[in-house]
Amino acid sequence: MSIPRNHHFVSQVHIKNFFNKNLNEIFVYDKVLDNHFSKKTSKSLFSEKDLNTKIKDGQKDFASLEKDLNTYFEKDFKTNSDIIKDFILDLNYSEKVNNALYYFAKYGAIGEVRNPRHKQFVEDALTEVFDKLLANRTPELENEFQSAFAYKKEMNYINSVQYSKVANKIVELMGDLIFKIEIPKDENDFFLLPDFCASNVREKINEYFNPDVKEIAYIGLPLSSKIYIHFYSSKIKNIKNKSEIFLVESPIVTALNKANFDFSESKVACESKDYLTEFVKNVAQQCI
Q: How many CB atoms lie within 10 A of CB 257?
């Protein structure tokens, strides 16, 4: 049995929260190509071949990072989504709700590190450092560097991280979390899903010898077409230490969608074809 090599940087179970259930379809806009299209499946959306493949014991390992994602971020995604939906309706904050919120905070915390754009940034940074060191290379040092970069003959990314460990560390360093859940007041408003699963913003929230160190202090997650969760570190200066649920007006929905559209590499997806078309026409086209 072949092992799947088409790896998603936005999990399929997350993408499915933005499908139009009546049409069994999701609508996508590519801002680079200025192209509207739709898909009946999430299989090829927000994915890349061998994105999570790495070298392990001299062999290609297609499965380890995918298994890590499935175990800690995907297999319980729908269950926790339903818990959040119920919480919005009954406002009964329980341990189960708290666990679901932390589940999504951790999922959002790896939005950056699992994305091809960030992976390529890491590769470029490593190459730049080694190129500078090689300027004064010895034969022994050059052999060591060639060995260290041997993976590049087989794949695009080093993939030396373990997503679950990264997520746990990020959330731990954020300290206590403050959440704000936003829901569109107008039933004709929809949140967009960009080609990164969540936005990550860094601030100086911990003290280090290097005063310039900044860590993830905010995670913004469009959980579904109708639910947007903001996670803030309680260590942020002057942060209002109160978690809340809001019904938000159209301008706020538009602002969030525009921010995600602007930061996207190329694509955003939506449950509503009409909303996406109007958004691109009235808002997005001004940014292109």
A: 25
